[in-house]
Design brief:
Oligomer: single chain
Distance between the termini: 36 Å
Structural class: alpha+beta
Radius of gyration: 13 Å
Strand content: 5-15%
Order of helices and strands: HEHEEHEHH
Helix content: 25-40%
């Protein structure tokens, strides 16, 4: 896929130092973006690349296909919904993430 910018460049994952959820979170301003509408967020950033691990890059839109919540009241609410969707849909590159999907941790 042709990305609107290099996923490892300054606009992407900062030289591969940031992955997955961290790349998404830096697109949000905790002070001024809430409440945040999911569809508006995806409209603005949906084609942006999100590096999940050392060799996998997907679009933000692809990740948000699994986010059921349509509006987020605050940054914590946003983090929880995105993290849950990433874990449930195999986008969370973290050993042991599956234990958090069922709430057993």
């Amino acid at each position: 896929m042709d990305w609107p910018h290099d996923p490892d460049g300054e606009e992407g994952s900062e030289g591969r130092r940031k992955y997955g959820h961290a790349v998404i979170a830096k697109k949000v301003d905790e002070e001024s973006d809430f409440p945040l509408d999911r569809d508006e967020f995806v409209e603005e950033y949906g084609d942006d690349p999100v590096r999940l691990d050392y060799d996998r890059v997907v679009s933000l839109r692809e990740i948000f296909e699994g986010v059921e919540q349509s509006e987020f009241e605050d940054f914590v609410d946003f983090h929880k919904a995105v993290g849950r969707a990433m874990r449930e849909n195999g986008y969370w590159f973290y050993e042991g993430a599956d234990q958090f999907v069922d709430g057993e941790a």
